[in-house]
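Supplementary Note 3. Input sequence used for the single-chain structure prediction.
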Amino acid sequence: MRLREFVPDDSKDDLDDGLDYFEDDLESDEEKAPAKATEPNCDMFFIKEETIKKVSAGAIAEWSFSVSSKASSATLSFSVEPGRDDAPEWEISLADASSEVWNSAVPAESVEISVPKEFVLRAECPSGVRYGDSVRITLKAQSGSYSDSLSFEAVAKQSIMILKTQIDQEKSVADTLSAKAHLGEKDVYAILSPQGLRGYVFVEGMNTERLLEKTRDIKKARKFIEGEASIADIEPYLTPTSPVVGIVEGDIVELVNGPFKGEKARVQKIDQVKEEITVELIEAMVPIPVTVKGDSVRVIEKEK
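The predicted structure, written as discrete structure tokens, is reproduced below.
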């Protein structure tokens, strides 16, 4: 509007006519222009769990999800990318409630599915994996002008296995396995032989097949218990307890080491701070108090 103040009076009519024409032309162009296309709804995948999961060798990671569309069918295409080129091959499969839809062992670029439908995606971790090996699976759904994609990732983690041993040979087995752990592929990360747990050793490793191989010729080792242990299973053994816990005055104990090994004695006094106990030998001719470490005795009879 301020432009008109600088225009001579005899030119105002021409300018008004030009502006009116320009405005009409803009309105005409707006009428001719096609309406802006709206973006189609791309939310075809629905999942309520984490898409990245950790899985140990020989185990299977699973994801449940559903696919839906305004149409009655859709095309699913697959992409499987290992974390490293020379990694063992993961077996990937997709199934609905009634049958298997797709399997990486017999790969197909795409499959036709009816929707809506629920599916389960499975990734089986090979036994020969190394720490940090992974696989990424990307699914793409296409239904007419609608499309969506969803990626899943499975990452290999170490296993905590339980090795059964001959009773009272736990430390011997742990020491032998520790020496062998440094030979060849280094895939044994930790060995735990808890005090008080007889006949079992915890072994943390990556490749279950190599763990079996390394324990095969250890004479006092028996076999691995089927399945694996969790951190919660070994937590009680990670915090050392005092050897005098559970011992009370009046208990009958047997000395398991030292000069009086094999002798029976009665507990007279307990020092919780020093973790020592004072006992009196039962069969001694002269009752002499003897102070020993708490782990030097074994309770054979509780005080009544």
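The mean pLDDT is 83. DSSP finds four helices and 19 strands in the chain.
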